[in-house]
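Bit of a strange request maybe. I'm writing a small parser for structure token strings and I need a real example to test against, not something I typed by hand. Could someone generate the tokens for this chain?
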Amino acid sequence: MHVGVAMRRFQIASDEEIKRGGTTDVYFVRTKEILQAKGLADIDVVMEATAGELPNGWPWAVLCGIDEVAYLFQGLPVDVYSMGEGTIFKPRDLRGVRLPVITVEGSYGEFCHYETPMLGLICQASGIATKAARVRKVAGDRVVMSFGIRRIHPGLSRMVDRAAYIGGLNGVSSLSGADAISKQPMGTMPHALIIAFGDQVKAWRAFDEVMPEEVPRIALVDTYFDEKTEAIMAAEALKDRLQGVRLDTPMSRRGDFASLVREVRWELDTRGYRKVKIYVSGGLNEENIKRLCEAGAEGFGVGTSISNAPTIDFALDIVERGGKPEAKRGKFSGNKQVWRCPKCLEDLVLPVAEKQPKCLRCGGSTQPMLKPLIKKGEVVGKLLTADQIREHVLTQLKKMDL
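Reply from user aminoacidic:
Good idea to test on real output. This should exercise your parser:
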């Protein structure tokens, strides 16, 4: 039996375990031991995190998890420079040079065992935030909620929902995720509630009677009968108090989901329930959401495609050793700065000592993107709220194409 198995009830690392490097790969521990034994632990290096390619041919990604990176390196004798959380970036600049999103400077023996957890903090969160931003881009100003926590380990629910919100979603379903973004959780009702009553109308009315006024009256309308039939039943049962209906039809039963939405919309409208909105959930992604928007859907609960989004495969590589440029083959050596044109969001990567350039695309002025996050172990970068980061993402998103 491994040490600690008997005492551990949920298979998740603690804050303390992550902070002391207990979640690293063993070869970094061995590397540290070897460097110490050979008197090389104090060698100064510069390391940079880059992503050479993005999943599924995505043209851009959203950087997420920087707040946790700051906590990870806090108290270590290192300097960390980073793009701001919520920055939308392309993996390479206009000339094809890999874009550093984070650089770490210090004695390698002091922080080598933090490479694994640092990458883990940004790889998964950035993938989730990116997928959420892609969904937001397609959904426009329609309501999109994060419904995916049942598809991931509950210990990750807080991170997943925060990243989804930062990526542009309107709200999240989990209690822990809502706490992370200082919002009220969002959701409707499960099929189990209706089945517990054995009657749709009784369940809808009970929901209306028991839930406080601030909870939206959105009825789930696909438990026993046809979606159209149950939507009409819900509207006639709750009248003006009904704010929306949700279609969560299994893919094996839905056929053409967009046509189903159109049908429900038509039947509600012809009976005077034009204000009742249609929400859909189940198997949604940026591809089918576009068709559902065109059909008249006004809100979405998106789960697995966001919570289980592909990770961004960042790598952390030494690019400078002992004050001199040095890197493995395939990587560009030397400490660098990323210069961005705020007008067209194009980037140019240059050696850190070079002067501020003009944008190669539009000739406009540029600004440095890698800014101090940690200096000698102290957090000096400004860590923004989830709302501030989300707004930054939405502003950039206006200039991006899928």
